[in-house]
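Hi V.,

Quick status before I head out on leave. The structure for the redesign project is tokenized and pasted below; the design run finished overnight.
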């Protein structure tokens, strides 16, 4: 089964009392889990996958496999990708009822549920939003996306993209970015984040430490960024710092090779101790949830086989 993996951090909340109560509940439930169940809590499994293109495009749903993963392993999360909203909502409720512990439901919905589900109106991509001059509209956009997620039962949306689109040859970020100006990207991403989180849906800043200046798609190979650490600090890391300071609930780590961060040959940043623990956690002091990008992507599996990459990500 194709999988995404999740590294559990701290649950964010707006009230200290609620945080204490939530932490006590988490601790009490965590103590009831055996070793295998604790490991499974670090995993987010996908509900479906797409193969082929055009007339050969095929969607495969893993409803039975996900049910087995919930019942047998008590997985921590499920990520939605395709299907209809009513069916997906019904499946979420079904899986939540059979789960030993509540399941974290996620979606990769950068421009709303219409990006993934049928019969849902599509919303503008982030590059179009980057041309908007009123930040209040971006905040309202975030609220709308958040409300869509809540209606389905989704807790976290893997958005906004905070990559700076400063490479015209980038085949994968492109119109998913707010643009090439770090200040505009940061402010618009901040408004999108606030809109979603103000209605109770966790945002996710991606793709750390910055996927904008590449000419290779990490779905198919490992992109290399040769910038110095000072250059990364000045540009790529700037939007992440702004969102971290503002309380973004989660961050997604990219599959990139960046020698200025980790000199290990072909080690993706998603499974790099230097990137995740030293840079993200220790230096930037980020304490929210940390997701890897999908661990079936060739940016990581080309050099670390399935299973090995999963272990390395921890």
């Amino acid at each position: 089964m194709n999988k995404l993996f999740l590294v559990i951090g701290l649950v964010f909340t707006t009230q200290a009392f609620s945080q204490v109560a939530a932490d006590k509940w988490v601790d009490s439930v965590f103590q009831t889990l055996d070793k295998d169940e604790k490991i499974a809590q670090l995993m987010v499994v996908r509900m479906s996958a797409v193969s082929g293109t055009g007339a050969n495009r095929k969607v495969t749903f893993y409803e039975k496999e996900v049910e087995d993963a919930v019942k047998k392993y008590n997985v921590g999360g499920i990520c939605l990708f395709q299907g209809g909203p009513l069916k997906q909502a019904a499946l979420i409720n079904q899986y939540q009822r059979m789960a030993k512990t509540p399941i974290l439901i996620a979606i990769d919905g950068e421009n709303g549920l219409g990006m993934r589900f049928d019969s849902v109106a599509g919303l503008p991509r982030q590059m179009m939003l980057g041309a908007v001059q009123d930040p209040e509209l971006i905040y309202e956009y975030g609220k709308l996306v958040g409300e869509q997620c809540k209606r389905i039962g989704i807790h976290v949306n893997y958005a906004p993209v905070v990559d700076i689109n400063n490479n015209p040859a980038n085949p994968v970020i492109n119109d998913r970015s707010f643009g090439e100006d770090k200040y505009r990207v940061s402010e618009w991403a901040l408004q999108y984040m606030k809109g979603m989180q103000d209605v109770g849906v966790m945002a996710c800043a991606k793709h750390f430490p910055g996927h904008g200046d590449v000419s290779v798609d990490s779905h198919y190979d490992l992109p290399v960024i040769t910038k110095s650490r000072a250059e990364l600090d000045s540009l790529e890391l700037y939007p992440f710092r702004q969102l971290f300071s503002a309380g973004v609930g989660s961050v997604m780590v990219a599959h990139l090779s960046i020698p200025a961060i980790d000199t290990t040959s072909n080690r993706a940043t998603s499974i790099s101790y230097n990137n995740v623990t030293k840079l993200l956690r220790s230096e930037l002091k980020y304490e929210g949830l940390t997701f890897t990008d999908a661990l079936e992507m060739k940016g990581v599996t080309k050099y670390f086989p399935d299973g090995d990459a999963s272990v390395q990500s921890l």
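Above is the designed sequence. The chain has one domain: 3-313.

G. will cover questions while I'm gone.

Best,
W.
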